[in-house]
Design a protein that fits this description.
It is a single chain. The protein has 136 residues and is of the alpha/beta class. The chain contains four helices and five strands; from the N terminus they run βαβαβαβαβ. A three-stranded parallel β-sheet has the order 3-4-5, sandwiched between helices. The protein has a two-stranded parallel ribbon with strand order 1-2.
Length: 136
């Protein structure tokens, strides 16, 4: 079973220069001039991807790593879409990035997605202590 890789970058970024052929789907999540999509562009993209995978004969699991748009309410909303493959939502602490614990979780998910619930939400515990980070 393949895991879907969605690379979310600003529209002026060049993923091929950084990731080579492993870039996956490159998503422009907001317009840097008008700021359209800045608040919810990634969330809309993930919803769209879940809907696309629901139409596939062999839907791929999805990993969504985001330090400001991944939260429990969104996990509940994703469950309502009834994904046909597991979705792992990872919210790292924006001050440190993805923790070792979260990397282990992601690695386990990539290799054994069938062991996970339809939607699994993981938030680094230190995120609860600090105000929300909202991009750059």
């Amino acid at each position: 079973m393949a895991v879907h890789l969605a690379v979310i970058l600003q529209s002026d970024s060049r993923p091929d220069a950084r990731l080579g052929s492993h870039a996956g789907d490159v998503i422009t999540w907001y317009d840097p001039v008008t700021k359209w999509g800045r608040e919810t562009g990634k969330w809309q993209t993930i919803q769209r991807r879940v809907r696309i995978e629901c139409e596939e004969n062999e839907p791929a699991p999805i990993v969504w790593i985001d330090d400001d748009e991944c939260f429990e309410q969104r996990a509940q909303l994703l469950e309502e879409l009834q994904p046909k493959a597991p979705v792992l939502m990872v919210r790292p602490d924006y001050r440190i990035g993805i923790s070792r614990r979260q990397w282990k979780l992601i690695d386990t998910f990539v290799h054994h997605p069938e062991q996970f619930d339809t939607v699994t939400f993981d938030m680094e515990p230190t995120c609860r202590i600090y105000d929300i980070h909202h991009g750059f």
